[in-house]
Design a protein that fits this description.
globular, 2% strand, single chain
């Protein structure tokens, strides 16, 4: 008991001291390592850390429901102290002492691949000015809403849907019921990075931090993909085969269809795909102990439900398939299974229930989009992987039978959405293509099945020498295999448009909006009006006015104030859209114009509403 008391005291002392020293960012690392120490299973240190990450993703998404109802919000001392206290209590109740396996050379290979991908994602942003980064962000409007949700969660100190009225004052109403797991995780970590519970920084600072979370999220996605492929194929891996498998998966993450999610700033999709890759790996090849397996699966399902619930049906079908395949093992732990389902199911289903029944988000399934994965690539990869599972010694292994069931669940989701959209519109759109990205992720995790076409590996007496001997031929083989898929030169099927590729678009910032970025810089340099004023940018080009109003509202934290005038009502190019905005927006309004024609039209429109408090302001040239 004395040790437990000392551990509890340390659980609160560490977050307090690091917070006062401005280095609270070490607390999440301690929580990750501490969780890994209490888990069991995994051959290497990285295995254990990734399994701990899987548990923490879901536990944090579900546990964050507390933040909106207790008085501490998302303060790093309170959150860090609570997390470490839970770890101490788990250790006491289970009688487990923290232990960690040793690191392995394979860990360095996986980490090296993830670092390389993170560097690929980060360098184009780091080497550019803030205005250039803003130009990349302004290439699409989606990130503005995600940024306002991330910023709003930090301001509210909890999920937006738990603080309904306050959230609507900060953001567009459609984001209040949007799945918020990624935004919560990013905002929570940002508090530790800033070592502050209330320092939100400027709007542009929030943009930089959120872009940083996106870049790190894609690096994490690469880490998870490489790890999951190795985890599932562990029984047939040699150093040479591990290097080839790592090289091929990494190349496809960097150059293939999936990198479009990085380019288009689909932050939630990236994390949702990473969580699904973890779920595929854990379902196919379980962890030590049935209870720990059940907890890990439950946490990942909760994480998917809070992050990107489009994937939740596939996740639930995959879990159901695992329960059927492992029914004898599960039936021996009926009580643990029942408790896990009763606790996890309502939490995992909460976001999708809010989205479908309160916000009517099912209508969004017909939305169009520009991210279309290569069908030829999916068919070829699917045929290769399923053929290897069905017609090699894989078919006798429970790991691969379970994997095939998980692949079928993902494929069923993609096929259902494609069929629905084809019947409704005669084509396929945004969410069907996201489901096909999930199928691609599951196929890449199962690439190790192709290794069963090779003879069974022989283990050499000196694993270190085997690694050195395998390095050069392994890298060469990875390059050859990747080139066979058309990845090295970047030709079909990985071109989103003629003459370029997703990596070129990202690396050379080919997708950018310099005109609006420079305008936003000038707008932010102007004195900001009081917080209760709705600021509208008016221009003779209606789409330019829309973009600038949208992002200026995000950076000035007025998204909630301008939402009714921005999203509801006539189309963007409606001639009297400015008049509609003046009718719909409550309270005082400021109209910013940059040209004589825009100013003349704005003043004519304002004259029709003499009872409104409206000021027309000229943007300095």
């Amino acid at each position: 008991m004395a040790r437990a008391g000392a551990a509890l005291a340390l659980a609160w002392l560490l977050p307090t001291v690091t917070y006062l020293l401005g280095i609270a960012v070490v607390v999440p690392v301690v929580v990750l390592v501490g969780t890994a120490g209490l888990l069991r299973g995994g051959r290497t240190l990285l295995d254990r850390l990734v399994l701990a990450l899987a548990v923490l993703l879901g536990a944090t998404c579900g546990g964050a429901l507390l933040f909106a109802v207790w008085p501490f919000g998302m303060h790093p001392v309170a959150v860090g102290g609570l997390a470490l206290t839970v770890l101490v209590l788990v250790a006491v109740l289970t009688g487990r002492r923290p232990t960690l396996p040793r690191p392995d050379l394979s860990d360095l290979l996986t980490l090296g691949a993830a670092v390389a991908v993170a560097a690929f994602a980060a360098l184009p942003l780091l080497r550019r000015s803030r205005t250039d980064r803003l130009a990349v962000v302004l290439a699409g409007e989606d990130l503005s809403r995600h940024l306002s949700l991330y910023d709003g969660i930090r301001d509210l100190g909890g999920y937006a849907f738990q603080k309904w009225d306050a959230a609507h004052a900060l953001m567009y109403g459609g984001m209040v019921t949007y799945p918020q797991g990624q935004h919560m995780l990013a905002g929570l970590l940002d508090g530790f990075v800033r070592s502050s519970g209330d320092d939100l920084g400027s709007g542009l600072s929030a943009m930089d931090h959120y872009l940083g979370s996106h870049v790190l999220g894609y690096g994490l996605f690469a880490l998870v993909m490489v790890w999951a492929a190795q985890w599932v194929a562990a029984g047939v891996l040699t150093p040479l085969r591990r290097i080839v498998l790592t090289g091929v998966v990494t190349t496809m993450v960097v150059v293939g269809d999936l990198v479009g999610n990085l380019v288009l700033n689909y932050t939630t999709t990236v994390l949702g795909l990473a969580e699904m890759a973890l779920l595929v790996a854990v379902l196919a090849r379980g962890v030590a102990g049935t209870r720990q397996q059940l907890v890990t699966i439950a946490c990942l399902v909760v994480a998917v439900g809070f992050t990107y619930y489009l994937f939740l049906p596939a996740a639930l079908l995959a879990v159901l398939a695992w329960l059927v395949v492992h029914r004898r093992r599960v039936l021996r732990h009926r009580v643990a299974t029942a408790v896990t389902v009763v606790v996890a199911a309502p939490v995992a289903l909460l976001p999708v229930t809010l989205g479908l029944f309160l916000a009517g988000q099912a209508q969004a399934l017909l939305r169009g989009g520009e991210l279309r994965p290569s069908r030829d690539h999916l068919i070829a990869l699917g045929a290769a992987v399923t053929g290897a599972v069905l017609f090699t010694r894989c078919r006798r292994a429970r790991i691969w039978r379970t994997y095939l069931a998980v692949l079928a669940a993902a494929g069923l989701l993609g096929a259902a959405l494609l069929a629905y959209q084809a019947a409704a519109e005669g084509g396929n759109g945004y969410y069907a293509n996201k489901a096909l990205h999930l199928v691609l992720v599951v196929l890449l995790v199962g690439l190790g099945a192709l290794l069963h076409l090779l003879p069974s590996p022989r283990r050499g007496p000196d694993p270190r020498r085997a690694w050195l001997q395998a390095l050069a031929p392994g890298l060469a083989a990875a390059l050859v295999v990747s080139g066979a898929f058309g990845l090295v030169r970047g030709d079909a099927p990985y071109r989103p448009t003629n003459g370029t590729t997703w990596p070129k678009i990202w690396w050379f910032a080919q997708r950018r909006n310099d005109v609006d970025a420079r305008a936003i810089d000038r707008l932010l340099a102007m004195p900001a009006p009081p917080a209760d004023v709705a600021v509208i940018v008016y221009d003779v080009d209606p789409f330019r006015a829309y973009f600038q109003t949208l992002f200026l509202g995000t950076f000035q934290r007025r998204s909630g104030r301008i939402a009714h005038g921005l999203y509801l009502g006539p189309p963007v190019d409606e001639p009297d859209r400015l008049g509609h905005q003046l009718r719909e927006l409550p309270g005082p309004v400021e109209i910013v114009v940059a040209s004589d024609d825009a100013e003349a039209h704005a003043r004519q429109t304002v004259a029709r509403y003499p009872d409104r408090r409206v000021e027309v302001v000229r943007l300095p040239s």
